Amino acid sequence: MATETKHIGNLSGKILIFGGVYSNLQALEAIKKIAEEHHIPVENCICTGDIIGYCAQPEETIQLFKAWNPRSILGNVEIQLLEGSDNCGCNFEEGSRCDTLSQQWFSYASNKVTPGSIEFMATLPHHIQFTFANKNITVVHGSVSNTSEFIFKSTPWTRKLPNFETTQSEIIIAGHCGLPFYEENTNKIWINPGVIGMPANDGQPKVWYVILDDSNNDFKFKFHTLDYNYSLANQLMLEHGLPKSYAETLKTGLWDNMDILPNTERQQQGLRINF
Protein backbone atom coordinates (compact mmCIF):
# COMPACT_ATOMS: atom_id res chain seq x y z
CA MET A 1 0.00 0.00 0.00
CA ALA A 2 0.95 3.63 -0.41
CA THR A 3 3.39 5.21 2.03
CA GLU A 4 2.56 8.51 3.68
CA THR A 5 5.65 10.30 2.32
CA LYS A 6 8.19 9.21 -0.28
CA HIS A 7 11.65 10.80 -0.02
CA ILE A 8 13.35 10.94 -3.41
CA GLY A 9 16.59 12.68 -2.46
CA ASN A 10 18.27 15.55 -4.24
CA LEU A 11 17.17 16.52 -7.76
CA SER A 12 18.91 18.84 -10.18
CA GLY A 13 18.39 20.33 -13.63
CA LYS A 14 14.84 21.02 -14.78
CA ILE A 15 11.79 19.58 -13.05
CA LEU A 16 8.40 19.36 -14.74
CA ILE A 17 5.46 19.77 -12.34
CA PHE A 18 1.89 19.17 -13.46
CA GLY A 19 -1.39 18.27 -11.81
CA GLY A 20 -4.88 16.95 -12.42
CA VAL A 21 -4.64 14.84 -15.57
CA TYR A 22 -8.33 14.01 -15.00
CA SER A 23 -8.44 11.07 -17.46
CA ASN A 24 -7.54 13.51 -20.26
CA LEU A 25 -5.32 11.28 -22.39
CA GLN A 26 -4.71 14.00 -24.99
CA ALA A 27 -3.36 16.39 -22.33
CA LEU A 28 -1.12 13.67 -20.88
CA GLU A 29 0.29 12.94 -24.32
CA ALA A 30 1.02 16.66 -24.74
CA ILE A 31 2.80 17.08 -21.38
CA LYS A 32 4.87 13.98 -22.06
CA LYS A 33 5.98 15.62 -25.30
CA ILE A 34 6.96 18.77 -23.38
CA ALA A 35 9.21 16.69 -21.13
CA GLU A 36 10.85 15.13 -24.16
CA GLU A 37 11.33 18.47 -25.94
CA HIS A 38 12.98 19.97 -22.83
CA HIS A 39 15.05 16.82 -22.25
CA ILE A 40 13.62 16.47 -18.75
CA PRO A 41 14.24 12.94 -17.46
CA VAL A 42 11.19 11.04 -16.30
CA GLU A 43 12.43 10.95 -12.71
CA ASN A 44 12.23 14.78 -12.77
CA CYS A 45 8.57 14.77 -13.86
CA ILE A 46 6.11 14.99 -10.96
CA CYS A 47 2.30 14.93 -10.90
CA THR A 48 0.36 16.39 -7.96
CA GLY A 49 -2.35 13.71 -8.15
CA ASP A 50 -5.80 13.13 -9.66
CA ILE A 51 -4.54 11.20 -12.67
CA ILE A 52 -8.18 10.10 -12.95
CA GLY A 53 -11.08 12.54 -13.25
CA TYR A 54 -13.68 14.16 -15.44
CA CYS A 55 -12.66 13.05 -18.91
CA ALA A 56 -13.36 10.01 -21.08
CA GLN A 57 -10.23 7.83 -20.98
CA PRO A 58 -9.36 6.86 -17.39
CA GLU A 59 -7.90 3.45 -18.16
CA GLU A 60 -5.98 4.62 -21.23
CA THR A 61 -4.61 7.52 -19.20
CA ILE A 62 -3.37 5.23 -16.43
CA GLN A 63 -1.76 2.92 -18.99
CA LEU A 64 0.14 5.79 -20.61
CA PHE A 65 1.12 7.13 -17.19
CA LYS A 66 2.51 3.71 -16.23
CA ALA A 67 4.38 3.38 -19.54
CA TRP A 68 5.93 6.85 -19.24
CA ASN A 69 6.40 6.40 -15.46
CA PRO A 70 6.70 9.92 -14.04
CA ARG A 71 6.39 10.33 -10.28
CA SER A 72 3.01 11.06 -8.73
CA ILE A 73 1.27 11.34 -5.41
CA LEU A 74 -2.26 10.24 -4.61
CA GLY A 75 -5.06 12.63 -5.39
CA ASN A 76 -8.41 12.40 -3.66
CA VAL A 77 -9.83 10.59 -6.71
CA GLU A 78 -7.23 7.82 -6.48
CA ILE A 79 -7.85 7.47 -2.74
CA GLN A 80 -11.60 7.16 -3.28
CA LEU A 81 -11.12 4.57 -6.02
CA LEU A 82 -8.79 2.57 -3.78
CA GLU A 83 -11.37 2.64 -0.99
CA GLY A 84 -14.21 1.59 -3.30
CA SER A 85 -16.15 4.77 -2.61
CA ASP A 86 -19.02 6.06 -4.72
CA ASN A 87 -17.84 9.68 -4.94
CA CYS A 88 -14.68 11.67 -5.66
CA GLY A 89 -14.09 12.74 -2.07
CA CYS A 90 -14.19 16.50 -2.68
CA ASN A 91 -16.85 16.91 0.02
CA PHE A 92 -19.12 18.93 -2.24
CA GLU A 93 -22.34 20.15 -0.65
CA GLU A 94 -24.93 17.40 -1.05
CA GLY A 95 -27.27 18.15 -3.94
CA SER A 96 -25.04 20.89 -5.37
CA ARG A 97 -24.26 20.96 -9.06
CA CYS A 98 -20.67 19.81 -8.38
CA ASP A 99 -22.03 16.93 -6.32
CA THR A 100 -24.47 15.84 -9.03
CA LEU A 101 -21.99 16.03 -11.89
CA SER A 102 -19.18 14.37 -9.94
CA GLN A 103 -21.37 11.35 -9.30
CA GLN A 104 -21.73 10.90 -13.07
CA TRP A 105 -18.05 11.03 -14.00
CA PHE A 106 -16.83 9.20 -10.90
CA SER A 107 -19.18 6.29 -11.57
CA TYR A 108 -17.96 6.19 -15.17
CA ALA A 109 -14.30 6.17 -14.09
CA SER A 110 -14.93 3.50 -11.46
CA ASN A 111 -16.39 1.21 -14.09
CA LYS A 112 -13.57 1.80 -16.57
CA VAL A 113 -10.41 1.36 -14.50
CA THR A 114 -9.09 -2.19 -14.27
CA PRO A 115 -7.86 -4.04 -11.17
CA GLY A 116 -4.32 -3.61 -12.48
CA SER A 117 -4.76 0.16 -12.51
CA ILE A 118 -6.11 0.09 -8.97
CA GLU A 119 -3.01 -1.87 -7.94
CA PHE A 120 -0.85 0.82 -9.55
CA MET A 121 -2.64 3.57 -7.61
CA ALA A 122 -1.97 1.67 -4.40
CA THR A 123 1.78 2.16 -4.94
CA LEU A 124 1.55 5.97 -4.98
CA PRO A 125 2.55 7.94 -1.87
CA HIS A 126 0.45 10.66 -0.26
CA HIS A 127 3.34 13.15 -0.38
CA ILE A 128 6.74 13.43 -2.06
CA GLN A 129 9.74 15.22 -0.54
CA PHE A 130 13.01 16.19 -2.18
CA THR A 131 15.74 18.82 -2.11
CA PHE A 132 16.41 21.10 -5.04
CA ALA A 133 18.60 24.20 -5.29
CA ASN A 134 19.23 23.97 -1.54
CA LYS A 135 15.50 24.05 -0.81
CA ASN A 136 13.44 21.44 0.99
CA ILE A 137 10.34 20.79 -1.12
CA THR A 138 7.17 18.84 -0.32
CA VAL A 139 4.53 17.88 -2.88
CA VAL A 140 0.98 17.55 -1.54
CA HIS A 141 -2.42 17.28 -3.17
CA GLY A 142 -4.70 19.56 -1.15
CA SER A 143 -2.70 20.09 2.01
CA VAL A 144 -0.42 17.97 4.18
CA SER A 145 -3.20 17.10 6.62
CA ASN A 146 -6.13 16.92 4.19
CA THR A 147 -5.87 15.60 0.64
CA SER A 148 -9.24 17.18 -0.25
CA GLU A 149 -8.60 20.64 1.18
CA PHE A 150 -9.08 23.42 -1.36
CA ILE A 151 -6.32 26.02 -1.01
CA PHE A 152 -6.31 29.01 -3.35
CA LYS A 153 -4.18 32.10 -3.67
CA SER A 154 -6.75 34.04 -1.65
CA THR A 155 -6.65 31.42 1.12
CA PRO A 156 -5.11 33.10 4.19
CA TRP A 157 -1.42 32.44 4.76
CA THR A 158 -2.29 31.24 8.25
CA ARG A 159 -3.84 28.14 6.62
CA LYS A 160 -0.83 27.59 4.38
CA LEU A 161 1.88 28.11 6.99
CA PRO A 162 1.32 24.88 9.00
CA ASN A 163 2.17 22.88 5.86
CA PHE A 164 5.67 24.39 5.81
CA GLU A 165 6.12 23.92 9.55
CA THR A 166 4.93 20.30 9.60
CA THR A 167 7.15 19.27 6.69
CA GLN A 168 10.10 21.59 7.49
CA SER A 169 9.98 22.78 3.89
CA GLU A 170 10.70 26.08 2.22
CA ILE A 171 8.58 25.16 -0.81
CA ILE A 172 5.16 23.51 -0.93
CA ILE A 173 3.92 22.30 -4.31
CA ALA A 174 0.20 21.51 -4.28
CA GLY A 175 -2.65 20.55 -6.57
CA HIS A 176 -6.39 19.93 -6.21
CA CYS A 177 -7.86 23.43 -6.60
CA GLY A 178 -7.45 23.51 -10.40
CA LEU A 179 -6.00 27.03 -10.59
CA PRO A 180 -2.33 27.95 -11.10
CA PHE A 181 -0.87 30.40 -8.61
CA TYR A 182 2.02 31.06 -6.29
CA GLU A 183 2.44 32.99 -3.07
CA GLU A 184 5.67 34.04 -1.34
CA ASN A 185 5.81 34.88 2.34
CA THR A 186 8.66 34.91 4.88
CA ASN A 187 11.11 33.11 2.56
CA LYS A 188 8.58 30.39 1.81
CA ILE A 189 6.75 29.75 -1.46
CA TRP A 190 3.46 27.95 -2.12
CA ILE A 191 3.23 26.85 -5.77
CA ASN A 192 0.23 25.33 -7.50
CA PRO A 193 1.07 24.48 -11.14
CA GLY A 194 -2.59 24.20 -12.07
CA VAL A 195 -3.95 21.13 -13.83
CA ILE A 196 -3.63 19.78 -17.35
CA GLY A 197 -6.96 17.98 -17.54
CA MET A 198 -9.21 21.05 -17.42
CA PRO A 199 -8.73 24.77 -18.19
CA ALA A 200 -8.21 27.27 -15.38
CA ASN A 201 -11.54 29.13 -15.72
CA ASP A 202 -9.69 31.86 -17.61
CA GLY A 203 -11.56 31.65 -20.90
CA GLN A 204 -8.84 29.72 -22.72
CA PRO A 205 -8.72 26.01 -23.60
CA LYS A 206 -5.00 25.95 -22.81
CA VAL A 207 -3.97 24.36 -19.52
CA TRP A 208 -1.09 24.99 -17.11
CA TYR A 209 2.10 23.47 -15.75
CA VAL A 210 5.36 24.62 -14.10
CA ILE A 211 9.04 24.00 -14.75
CA LEU A 212 11.53 24.35 -11.89
CA ASP A 213 15.12 25.27 -12.75
CA ASP A 214 18.26 25.35 -10.61
CA SER A 215 20.63 27.09 -13.04
CA ASN A 216 23.27 29.21 -11.28
CA ASN A 217 22.36 27.33 -8.09
CA ASP A 218 19.23 29.46 -7.73
CA PHE A 219 15.68 28.23 -7.25
CA LYS A 220 13.58 29.38 -10.21
CA PHE A 221 10.12 28.43 -11.39
CA LYS A 222 8.09 29.42 -14.42
CA PHE A 223 4.45 28.84 -15.34
CA HIS A 224 3.66 27.67 -18.87
CA THR A 225 0.50 27.03 -20.88
CA LEU A 226 -0.02 23.75 -22.68
CA ASP A 227 -1.74 23.28 -26.03
CA TYR A 228 -3.33 19.90 -26.64
CA ASN A 229 -6.12 18.34 -28.71
CA TYR A 230 -9.00 19.57 -26.58
CA SER A 231 -11.46 19.09 -29.44
CA LEU A 232 -10.87 15.34 -29.39
CA ALA A 233 -11.08 15.23 -25.60
CA ASN A 234 -14.40 17.12 -25.80
CA GLN A 235 -15.73 14.80 -28.49
CA LEU A 236 -14.86 11.68 -26.50
CA MET A 237 -16.60 13.02 -23.39
CA LEU A 238 -19.77 13.60 -25.38
CA GLU A 239 -19.58 10.19 -27.05
CA HIS A 240 -19.34 8.47 -23.68
CA GLY A 241 -22.24 10.35 -22.11
CA LEU A 242 -20.17 12.35 -19.64
CA PRO A 243 -21.46 15.73 -18.40
CA LYS A 244 -21.90 18.03 -21.41
CA SER A 245 -21.10 21.11 -19.37
CA TYR A 246 -17.68 19.73 -18.39
CA ALA A 247 -17.03 18.74 -21.98
CA GLU A 248 -17.87 22.30 -23.02
CA THR A 249 -15.40 23.65 -20.46
CA LEU A 250 -12.59 21.99 -22.40
CA LYS A 251 -13.45 24.27 -25.34
CA THR A 252 -14.53 27.49 -23.64
CA GLY A 253 -12.04 27.53 -20.79
CA LEU A 254 -14.88 28.53 -18.44
CA TRP A 255 -16.06 26.40 -15.54
CA ASP A 256 -19.67 25.26 -15.48
CA ASN A 257 -20.01 26.43 -11.88
CA MET A 258 -17.88 28.01 -9.22
CA ASP A 259 -19.24 26.34 -6.10
CA ILE A 260 -15.78 25.64 -4.68
CA LEU A 261 -14.26 29.06 -5.38
CA PRO A 262 -13.78 31.87 -2.87
CA ASN A 263 -15.19 35.25 -3.94
CA THR A 264 -11.80 36.53 -5.09
CA GLU A 265 -11.34 33.67 -7.55
CA ARG A 266 -14.98 33.82 -8.68
CA GLN A 267 -14.48 37.40 -9.76
CA GLN A 268 -11.55 36.35 -11.93
CA GLN A 269 -13.56 34.02 -14.18
CA GLY A 270 -12.73 34.61 -17.83
CA LEU A 271 -9.75 36.84 -17.04
CA ARG A 272 -6.41 36.01 -18.63
CA ILE A 273 -3.87 34.68 -16.14
CA ASN A 274 -0.48 36.39 -16.22
CA PHE A 275 2.70 35.57 -14.29
From TrEMBL:
A Pfam family of this chain: Metallophos_2
InterPro entries: Ap4A_hydrolase, Calcineurin-like_PHP_lpxH, Metallo-depent_PP-like, Pesterase_MJ0912
GO molecular function, one term: phosphatase activity
Recorded superkingdom: Bacteria
Every Calcineurin-like phosphoesterase domain range: 27-213
Protein family according to the UniProt entry: Belongs to the metallophosphoesterase superfamily. YfcE family.
Name of the molecule in the record: Metallophosphoesterase family protein
Species this chain originates from: Bizionia algoritergicola
Biological classification of the source: Bacteria, Pseudomonadati, Bacteroidota, Flavobacteriia, Flavobacteriales
